[in-house]
Amino acid sequence: MKKYFLIVSTFILMMLSVSTTVSAKEPSEKTGVISSGLEDQTGVAITIYNVNLGLVKDQREIKLFEGTGELRFMDVASQIIPTSVHIKSLVNPDSLRILEQNYEYDLLNPQKLLDKYVGKEVRLYQKNPYTEREEIVTATLLSNNGGSIFRIGDEITFGHPGRIIFPGVPENLISKPTLVWSVENNLQSKQRVEASYLTNGLNWSADYVVTLNEKDDRADLSGWVTIDNKSGGAYRNAKLKLVAGDVHRVMEEFARDEIKFKGAMAQREAPQFKEEEFFEYHIYILDRPTTIKDNQTKQISLINVDDIPVKKEMVFRGAKYYYRSQYGEISSKQKIGVFIEIENKKENNLGIPLPKGIVRVYKHDTEGSLQFVGEDSIDHTPKDEKIKVKLGDAFDVTGSRKQTDWKKIAYDTYEAAFEISLRNHKKENVTVKVIEPIPGDWTILDSSHEYTKTEAFTAEFNIPVPKDSETRLTYRVRMRH
Q1: Which long-range contacts (CB under 8 A, 24 or more apart) does 378-383 make?
Q2: 3-class secondary structure for 53-110?
Q3: How many CA atoms lie within 13 A of 330 on its CB side?
Q4: How far apart are CA 89 and CA 209, in angstroms?
Q5: What is the pTM of this model?
């Protein structure tokens, strides 16, 4: 009998144990909260657009409760665009269902912590300067508007010198931006999920360095990708892609911070990007993983070519208002711009799509030191197109112009005559391109030099100017407008 009672008792205890286990496990499956951070990350890929926008694909391996639960997806960019978030299972798309999605960004800081404890009890700690004894008192935080006000017993005080001790962190304050999903999971094994989202604060630009030779007719060119991460997130060993093109966004454009590097002094490295056509843009894929830290600016080599043909030009440009009646001198010492032109062709060791960016030009002086001679920005440049860079204005080559005649021939027809003087104080001969934007339907009646009608309203003259001398261009034009 005693043995029978022992067997029955053992069986009842076993059943109670099983029942207790099930009843304890069941609620946790339905109400369980799983937090996932970078420790669960198995891969990350970033596509950065040059409009201050990035696409992040974050893959993680997470053990989720079966049934309904909450997934707290931490370590996301603080500048995330919540409406762009998408999550999917990489194991079985049907095994994971998203019921709700929240983005929590009420981050923990001293001010918000105090605000959350208004009306609640805290403890105030201080060290008595006379007795050197530690004193802790319980107080109620009444207000935190411009300073903390406490009730200690029946008295009200502010400016308490002690340190405030809080009993805990409120549930609605978090230490880092977090995506929170209410999910329904039917996979017993670990889930492999990919969360993708757009974020502001990721930007990239191209910076180019051109080093001219002694005669200014050949150059070496190196290009660098500059990545600026102000998204509030870090990306470890990320697969990196860059999209070059004018991607339209339905929001205000963000100001681009100017980033300057001593690119000319940097070590020349082999290109690391593979370029492909992508929609109406071009995409550049880095051939290795890279880590981009938060608040970090990173440079990666994009292109490196030598011995490119370069065309140097000096340009003297007119203006449309010159062609009104204004006898006499128009300008006595007009600046002459200095430009270099590069054809983006395969036979020039180029012939690849070049993203927009800043071109900085250098040249060695007589002592062999590299000196900066100017910079300019270029737009996205397809292959077989020209790149034109303004370096500055000539020091020793100047020009002036005056109107020598002007008359009205008919109610809509006029004639004007001009004299342009170009003076060269250099030790070598130069050629100055004179560009005249003539309005209306025009005809040059006579000219001291040959010209080319390059556009409907533009005449160009290429004027040789010998060293230490002056050349004068004269022409008469008839205009109808």
Answers
A1: 378/208, 378/354, 380/244, 380/245, 380/246, 380/282, 380/353, 380/354, 380/355, 380/356, 381/344, 381/353, 381/354, 381/356, 382/344, 382/353, 383/344, 383/345, 383/346, 383/350, 383/351, 383/352, 383/353
A2: EEEEEEEEEECCCCEEEEEEEECCCCCECHHHCEEEECCCHHHEEEEEEEEECCECCH
A3: 24
A4: 45
A5: 0.69
**If you average pLDDT over residues 27-42, what whole number do you get?**
74
Q: In terms of residues, how long is the chain?
A: 481
Tokens representing 192 are 């492999």
Q: What pLDDT shows up at residue 166?
A: 75
- For 222-285, the three-class secondary structure string (H helix, E strand, C coil) is EEEEEEEECCCCCEEEEEEEEEECCCCCCCCCCCCCCCCCCHHHCCCCCCCEEEEEECCEEEEE
**Number of neighbours of residue 412 by Cβ within 10 angstroms:** 11
Give the separation between CA 253 and CA 52, rounded to whole angstroms. Answer: 8
pLDDT exceeds 80 at position 28: no
Cα 213 to Cα 220: distance, rounded to the nearest angstrom: 8
- Location of structure tokens 């929001």: 251
Q: Which amino acid is at 458?
A: T
Which H/E stretch holds residue 357?
strand 357-364
In angstroms, the first-to-last Cα distance of the chain is 125
Can you say whether the dihedral through the CA atoms of 58, 60, 65, 67 is positive or negative? positive
> Within a 10 A sphere around the Cβ of 335, how many other Cβ atoms?
16
Identify the three-state secondary structure at position 9: helix
Beta bridge partners of 418: 403, 475
Q: Is 461 helix (H, G, I), strand (E, B) or coil?
A: strand
155: Cβ contacts below 8 Å, ≥ 6 apart: none
Tally the C-alpha atoms within 13 A of residue 52's C-alpha that lie toward its C-beta.
15
Q: What is the pLDDT of residue 247?
A: 76
Taking a C-beta distance cutoff of 8 angstroms, is the pair 31, 69 a contact? Answer: yes
For residue range 170-180, what is the model confidence (pLDDT) as tens digits? 766 566 678 88
The 3-state DSSP class for residue 12 equals helix
Pick from 339, 319, 341: which is nearest to 331 by CA?
Answer: 319
CA neighbor of 261 nearest in space, from 300, 293, 310: 300
Residue type, 372: F
Which two tokens mark 277?
């056509």
213 neighbors 268 (Cβ within 8 angstroms):
no
* Both structure tokens of 65: 């409760």
The three-state secondary structure class of 286 is strand
pLDDT averaged over the chain? Answer: 83
